[in-house]
Model the fold of this input.
Amino acid sequence: MKYSLSLLAIFLLAGCAKPYYYNKTHCTTPTIAPQQCVSKPQKKVVTLKPSLTCPQMPLSKMVQCQPILKDKLLISVTGQGVAPANTTSPAQAYALAKRAAIADAYRLIAEKVKGVKIDGQDLIQNMMVKRSTVRTAVQAMIRNANIVETNYKEGLCEVSMEIALSRSQLKL
Amino acid sequence: MRSFDGDCSFSLSIKIITLFLYSSILFSDEYRISYRYTVHNATLIHQELAISPTMTKCLGKNSKSILFPYNPTNTITQTLLNHYEELLSFLSTLGIEIIATSSTQQTLYDTMTTITFKTQCFQILKQKDILKIISLK
Done:
């Protein structure tokens, strides 16, 4: 009788108990975009808020991949620049090409964030297109853009640049 | 002959020294820095960095700062020019203005980009072998 009662009690308790992986199943892991998971050693990584992350996930994994945070947007561009023909040394050529590439990267960021003004003009004379012109212009103020990577090969310099913007800054 | 307020030359010299010290304390460590460069068809064609001591006191509070190694034998301008790259990256964090235009006529593509760091006041502190540059906003 005693054994049967104890067995019944054990069964009842086992039925009420929650499985040990309960927390794991309910934990929301951060959504990760595939292009953002490619981690580079120079990249600045946005630290995650504890409320957004799974407590069971190891810290190293969380830092490697960037989650899509609702209020932040990461814009990355690659600018290109070439050295002028009349440079005195390879070092000067590199410095000038890099400066040109940085300017190009800034322009690309400005185009992405603020948009481009486009003005087109076609001149048709005697049923023929005589002149066709397209002008683009962008004007912006940029702050806190970071250079992520710089490559210099055969006179061409490529600068990868990133800027983190909030939705309110973009006014979307 | 003595003037009615005592030794006139002595009081005048004290006034001059006080005025000189006051002006040196207030203005000697403040500089105005501006930078502009132009890129035409992916090639840098012009760049200009201007550094000059201020003639009037700058208004504003301390903002971002950067440290440079400093050799007392060099002037501040020389030190800043020696660390050109670091200075430019610091200026870019403060905000730069970009004006870019491009035109395509028939098949010819022409682009011109001008990056400008507008003239801003900086406070420069000398501490033994370190030069601290603080932007004032």
About this structure: Chain B has one domain: 29-136. The CA atoms of residues 103 and 109 of chain B lie 6 Å apart. DSSP finds three helices and six strands in chain B. Residues 29-136 of chain B form one domain.
